[in-house]
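Annotated sample (chain length 313).
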Amino acid sequence: MNITPFLDRLQGAKNVLIAGCGGGFDVFVGMPLATHLMNYGVSVIFANLSFSNFQESGAIQVNPVTWLIDMKAKELPYFPEKWLAEWLSKRNLFNPIYAFSKTGVRPLQDAFAQINHEHSIDLVILVDGGTDSLIFGDEPGLGTVVEDAISILAACQAAGDRTLLAAIGFGVDHFHGVSHHSYLENVAKMIRADGYLGSFSINRQAPEADAFLDLVDHANRRQPKHRSIVCNSIASAIRGEFGNYQATGRTNETELFINPLMSQYWTFEAQCIVSNMHFAASLMKTENFPDASAVIESIRDQLSSRPFRPIPL
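Output written by the structure step:
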């Protein structure tokens, strides 16, 4: 028996979709999991909710909200998916990479279903850089909840109980107004509901860490003026940095708290998260991103938010 149920859930999977759920560089934080799976012969497909302008990329559009990204895509100022393709190709890996435009739950659900069918996906792992994906709606601060909530709902609608969430980067959402006291309270609730699948850290001596750190370094070279704060914070934690360690000039005006908890995955049954979302039922009907944002804001206005509490020292 494995003491981390999440790792048990990986056993027997043959085709796994690893999807960044919060946008931007989130798909990068799935690389340790992808490396682990590929080392055991598992076929890994990548996807990412994206902020890039695919209309100008020349990438293949496979449905109204999805593009297939490869080395042939044109250069864009901000293009994490192409940089992932470049990095994989250097290692003679050519995993399919899909990118989703910002949309509502219904179109994204169809996109997940199409990918799952085409690649015979038997497990979907949503990955989040940060921990604001475990948000129910009554927290004092929601972070960038819209992207995460849309992704979780859409993936669950398409894959049901074959959908898991792995969040890494505890603490990095502090600057988006996330209460980590509330986050830990949510984890406790997931434990009581049997939706928590355990936590584990990325050891810097492991090949999974090497892959992630090298991928982040590649992206830093490709976008030196806009390095990912989340990915570089996680990379710093994996390397053993601590406290106000500045890996990118973008954070010079802010005091950081890099710490070992940032290198730890927190894993969950995605459907259990959905069952605790106050806005899930209304959000499932949305067709576009503005409607989704409006739904969450409307439900939020009807709730009594928990007070903001610091973590006791």
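Annotation: The chain has a mean pLDDT of 94.
Annotation: Residues 33 and 188 are 24 Å apart (CA to CA).
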